[in-house]
Amino acid sequence: MATALVHYMAAAVSDRGRKRPSNEDAFGFSVEHGVYVVCDGMGGAAAGEIASSLAVDEMMKLLSGRAARGTLAEEAEQAICAANQAIFTRSQRNHKLSGMGTTLVALVAQERRVRLLNVGDSRGYRLRNGRLEQITQDHSLVEEQVRAGRMTQAEAQRSPLRNVITRALGTQSQVTPDVFELESEPGDLFLLCTDGLTRELSDALIESILCIDLPLDELCARLVRAANKAGGHDNVTCLLVRAGG
Question: Which of 27, 164, 175, 176 holds its CA 20 to 30 A away from the CA of 86?
Fold first, then answer.
């Protein structure tokens, strides 16, 4: 039985928001190579911006120039480890960058096979048949408490510890990403985003915007505008990937 080919299209928007002096988010994608990456940097001065840019650059360099020695999913995990090492080494060499790091959420696609990988609290979602589903799990203190049954989602939203993440690229010499394996269907819409979006907008509101019949770049712009209207307390980045037949 023949398998229908799936073609992808993508768009992204990144914005400083209304409160932050600079944008420490970064993104990159290559539809040709099936690689899509969003990062949210952290660290003093410009360290967060450096960390997120390093991670995206390393991922795109390694996965866009891949020699097909293994599966794209395997090489994506290796690229994340390489990005982690690049950030960690840079911070060790320059004391001004000490402690810098970044979250990462990435999607890699080979035909219908899709892998979502994440480190930190940047998220990956899938919209299918009008229903939005969060695929990744946040590596954050409050979300881990919620999953353990020690805190409600409402308590997590109000917690002063909600900004504490438990896993990031570059803060340790090694890191392990979570990997989620999916099979795409024509019409699926994948959202990769930083917490500047999800802290401001509920999943229900994000879903309602994504269900509007608009080009991907306009959907990204609408999400960013909505996040800024809701407060814009952080940088916000949205990357949308649509599967088509």
Answer: 164
Does the pTM of the predicted model rise above 0.70? yes
Bridging pattern class, strands 123-128 and 131-134 = antiparallel
> Hey, what CATH topology would domain 7-244 get?
Phosphatase 2c; domain 1 (3.60.40)
Whether the CA torsion 197, 55, 169, 183 is positive or negative: it is positive
Cβ atoms of residues 107 and 178 within 8 Å: no
Instruction: Give the strands of the sheet with 25-30, arranged side by side.
Output: 25-30, 35-42, 101-110, 113-119, 178-183
Find, among 118, 226, 99, the residue nearest to 171 by Cα.
Answer: 99
Strands of the chain, DSSP E:
7-15, 25-30, 35-42, 101-110, 113-119, 123-128, 131-134, 178-183, 189-193, 236-244
Write the CA distances from 34 to 28, 30, 37, 71, 78, integer angstroms.
Answer: 11, 6, 10, 12, 16
In tens, the pLDDT along 47-105 reads 999 999 999 999 999 998 765 556 777 899 999 999 999 999 999 999 889 889 999 99
Query: pLDDT at position 142, please?
Result: 80
